[in-house]
Amino acid sequence: STDADTQKNEEFTKEIEKLNNDLAELKDKYQRSLADRENVRRRLEKQVSDAKLYGIQGFCKDLLEVTDVFRKALESVTPEQLSEGSEQLRSLYDGVSMTETQLLAVFRRNGLSVMPLDSGAKFDTSWHEAVFEVPSDGKNEPGTIAHILRPAWKLHERCIRSAQVGVIKE
């Protein structure tokens, strides 16, 4: 009877070990599942947040073309033409200028802004598009910006239109 009891105890011990191992494995799977679920939740929250912030990106890109047209229109009139021109020309110029100012204010309220950029800045592929190269002027290092054709724009912190620049040859 003691051999039978010992054998039963060994079987119970093995069964308890197996159940404890199964429990540990299930607990590990459960914790991993919870962690995966939390990661998915965070990722979806970020996607929703980004969609709210950047959902207007395509619309903004289209409107940037309008700002280009305003800028070209304003730059096409010289100070001499304004001072010597007709009252209608000055009124038209002032109207285009005020419209551009108002559009830029709407952009700022919605997180769209122009990136400041100066000649001599280091070329950065994430914000700049090299359109042409120029020989070194001796003042600035190769790989720096020599001319700015079009400014870069960002929506919040994301570049939505790179600056078009001329770069000093390496």
UniProtKB/TrEMBL annotation:
Example of a GO MF term: adenyl-nucleotide exchange factor activity
Regions annotated as coiled coil: 2-47
Gene Ontology CC: PAM complex, Tim23 associated import motor
Keywords recorded for this protein, A-Z: Chaperone, Coiled coil
Biological-process GO terms, alphabetical: protein folding; protein import into mitochondrial matrix
UniProt xrefs under InterPro entries: GrpE (IPR000740), GrpE_CC (IPR013805), GrpE_head (IPR009012)
Family the UniProt entry places it in: Belongs to the GrpE family.
HAMAP family, A to Z: GrpE (MF_01151)
Name of the protein in question: GrpE protein homolog
Organism: Hirondellea gigas
